[in-house]
């Protein structure tokens, strides 16, 4: 009976073991010369101004839903895209952080992507950003108060610090970029399907 049980458990493990063996460091992912994060997390470096990030948003959302319990999905907005001043790009970082504080992060993020890439309203002016948040119940007074608060300032600084850290080590050269546990950068160009991406993330989370 014990032998049958061990065999059954082994057979259950085989599909994942076979799948994991197909993922290769240096091909599907890169191992970064940095300590692994203490908590389980997947970081997406992205920009609302990036058309590739806009097209990839549905994939990122599906991946987030597939993550095991206890794994945090971190959306880290960057401000280094060409053509726009970093301050302009950071305005959307602040807006996203403030929206999250009011439990409206996802809906505001969707509307910012839609405004820039569908409606062609680029949100380059802070007045337009504030107007978008006002539509979502975050009025100008609340926005002005929040953007000057220490938690929001610290959260935006943390985004920039993380962006700069991975940029300096050569791991962040464009967006979208996905990094698992601060240690493994996914080479997204090698991924052929949503299923493969989800499986690779699950594999890397166990390393």
From TrEMBL:
Keyword flag Signal: yes
Pfam families to which the protein is assigned, alphabetical: DSBA (PF01323)
Lineage of the organism: Bacteria, Pseudomonadati, Pseudomonadota, Gammaproteobacteria, Alteromonadales
Segments forming domain Thioredoxin: 10-206
The protein's name in its UniProt record: Thiol:disulfide interchange protein
Alphabetically ordered keywords of this record: Disulfide bond, Periplasm, Redox-active center, Signal
Transmembrane segments: none
Key word Signal present: yes
Subcellular location: Periplasm
Signal peptide location: 1-20
Top-level taxon of the source organism: Bacteria
Family recorded in the similarity comment: Belongs to the thioredoxin family. DsbA subfamily.
PROSITE patterns reported for this sequence: THIOREDOXIN_2
InterPro entries to which the protein is assigned, alphabetical: DSBA-like_thioredoxin_dom, DsbA/DsbL, Thiol_disulfide_DsbA, Thioredoxin-like_sf, Thioredoxin_domain
């Amino acid at each position: 009976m014990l032998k049958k049980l061990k065999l059954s458990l082994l057979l259950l493990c085989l599909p994942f073991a076979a799948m994991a063996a197909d993922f290769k460091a240096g091909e599907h992912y890169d191992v970064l010369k940095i300590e692994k994060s203490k908590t389980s997390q997947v970081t997406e470096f992205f920009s609302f101004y990036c058309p590739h990030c806009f097209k990839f948003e549905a994939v990122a959302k599906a991946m987030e839903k597939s993550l095991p319990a206890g794994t945090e999905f971190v959306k880290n907005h960057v401000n280094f895209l060409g053509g726009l001043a970093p301050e302009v790009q950071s305005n959307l970082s602040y807006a996203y952080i403030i929206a999250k504080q009011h439990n409206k992060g996802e809906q505001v993020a969707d509307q910012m992507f839609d405004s820039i890439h569908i409606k062609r309203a680029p949100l380059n002016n802070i007045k337009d950003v504030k107007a978008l948040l006002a539509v979502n119940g975050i009025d100008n007074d609340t926005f002005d108060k929040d953007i000057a608060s220490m938690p929001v300032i610290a959260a935006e600084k943390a985004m920039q610090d993380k962006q700069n850290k991975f940029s300096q080590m050569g791991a962040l050269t464009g967006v979208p970029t996905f990094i698992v546990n601060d240690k493994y950068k996914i080479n997204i160009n090698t991924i052929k399907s949503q299923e493969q991406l989800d499986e690779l993330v699950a594999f890397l989370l166990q390393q």
